[in-house]
Amino acid sequence: MDVSALLDSVEGIAHDAGQAIMAVYARDFSIEEKADKSPLTEADKAAHDVIVKGLHALPGGIPVLSEENTEGFAGADANGRYWLVDPLDGTKEFIKRNGEFTVNIALIEHGKPVLGVVVAPALEVSYLAAEGTGAFKVTWGEGQSGERQPIRVAGKPAEGATWRVVGSRSHPSPDLAEWLEQLGPHDMVPMGSSLKLCLIAEGAADVYPRLGPTCLWDTGAAHAVVEQAGGRVETLAGQPLRYATPQEHLNPYFIVWGSQ
User: Fold this and answer.
1) 3-state DSSP call for residue 8?
2) Which pLDDT band, with edges at 50, 70 and 90, does 172 fall under?
3) Domain 3-150 falls in which CATH fold?
4) 3-class DSSP state for residue 54?
């Protein structure tokens, strides 16, 4: 399967998962608490089942690392590939019913995200990218074309200009204030889930400093979108964020830049 066809297939799987999420979103639902105290809903489980079934049906037999079944992941395949999945990123936003939650599916190859699909079913928008294909935004629903529109980062703001800084809506960080003081004049753009990275990718924000805990599956898909749109996702040491050791689920602190 070529890259374009694979991207189409993964986009379809993510949309199917989004439909499963919205079926739960439309009614009352139960909420559990995982071992790390984070919430878990019926929608997380339903989306996980849809995605894993869909990815296993694709050619290649690439293993799947999903937030909802980390124990079932034995490692990357002989070619260093694995699927990295967050069936419902932004569960807190889902519970708040503010729409800022996503389905994240990424293909990792030798530690790098080479394909990513992010679907925000309640907002009726998706972002997708693959190496050699570019990055795109799709808006569907009433009055929308549903066609892929190429996206590009905004580039570095001019000297003295106000930076548009995107930040977490549900995870404030005490380290952020000091970092922002060094940045200079800025406006904050609050957003939930992996949509924060997607705002950088489409040029709606300039930088996203994440000085707090995240996991691999929170960033992989949108990371691919940012890179293919011309941006960077780097550790505080200026190194590309990597996914080569998936047995270690936590990311280091990182910065998403809307420029090269």
Assistant:
1) helix
2) low
3) Fructose-1,6-Bisphosphatase; Chain A, domain 1 (3.30.540)
4) helix
